[in-house]
Request: fold
Amino acid sequence: MKKYDVFVIGSGMSGMTVANKCASKGLKVGITDELPYGGTCALRGCDPKKIIIGATEVRDFAQRLKGNGIDTIPKVNWEDIMAFKQSFVDAMPPKIEKGYKNKDIDTYHTSAQFLSDNTLQIGDEVIEADKIVIASGAKPRILDFEGSEHALSSTDFLNLKELPQSLLFIGGGYIAFEFAHIAARAGAEVTIVHRGENPLENFEQDIVKHLVEATKDLGIHLILETEVTSIEKTEKGYNVKGIKNGKEITFTTKTVFNSAGRPPAIFDLDLEKANISYSKKGIEVNMYLQSTSNSSVYAAGDAADTHGLPLTPVAVLEGHVLASNIIKGNKKEVSYPPMPTVVFALPTMASVGLTEKQVKEEGIKYKVNYKSAEDWFNAKRLNVPEYAFKTIIDEETQTILGAHLIGPNAEEVINIFAMAIKTKMKLNEIRAMIFTYPTMASDIPHML
Reply:
């Protein structure tokens, strides 16, 4: 039986952070992942997705400026996109593993199951560790209806050798919208089927409605309040059946994708054998990211039930806090700064801080600035019809509580709002700043 000071389950950003930090302090560390090293973001999420979006951004920009200096709208070459994306993905796992070996971290490539409080079955081996870190991330939600095995995952989408003529996404979250926009701009017919009344339910709905309008304008069929009940394979593709307003409705498509959310990937770890408390949201942890029921176990990232959003930078933050508590003892409590989040559709939608609904629930005296800015110079020079903002202001402190944007470069501008919320900048301080002009950031003072 091999023994470790620290053993990490999962080699995504939080697990990688913990393993490297602990090894750098002289601890004996082992790590395992049943998938290639690098985690969802680098291999199956953020990075490859953003690379693919790059080509559709060029097409979108050209389309908007056609007749205003641009004559030809380029076509998206799916095969070239995939090859370019793969050049990044293929380079990551060996690079990460080389880094582990340089730090004398033992590497495993298999699943893990708990045998007791501090022992694990790792493939054919049994290992013991003083501290075990669960950083196994998340995986696609299991669909529970007839024919659900025919639905492909977001990982499958990112590895499509050819783009199907038609695609249907089950679920109306950010994965569905991002991939639907990619596919539609690449020439496919796209449908999103969502069971709720509103898509992207965790975002500010006044801004979401602008993205919904842009999505429909792109030719994407957005079907709401419809529960998918079955998928039937046919000679030409699939029949997807659902219930809308009590009536059965059928969609015909070449390919079906499961974009109904990503729960934590913890339910195959035999947690009960190690007395580890958990819920559908993840491992139950305290302020030190330590299991509430097994002091030998810690958890971070998507695998942990915390107040952090399921975002890569948050996983890294939690990894640093967790590693510090293993190395120095439980002295560092996890604390979250404002966490900006983005839906990388086109137009881009970004959010940070509180929504109006959350502010109302907290009983804060506030005011709202909500406006479509399509007649502003920045929208006109880019020929953008979807440009809007909603800022939520604390009336007593004259600081920003939340900012919600849709439009060009929203993913960058939202970071300035995050800094302003974090530092509690007063509105008059922001208004007094000099921003480069004309840039999207120069619009910030007018959003307050």
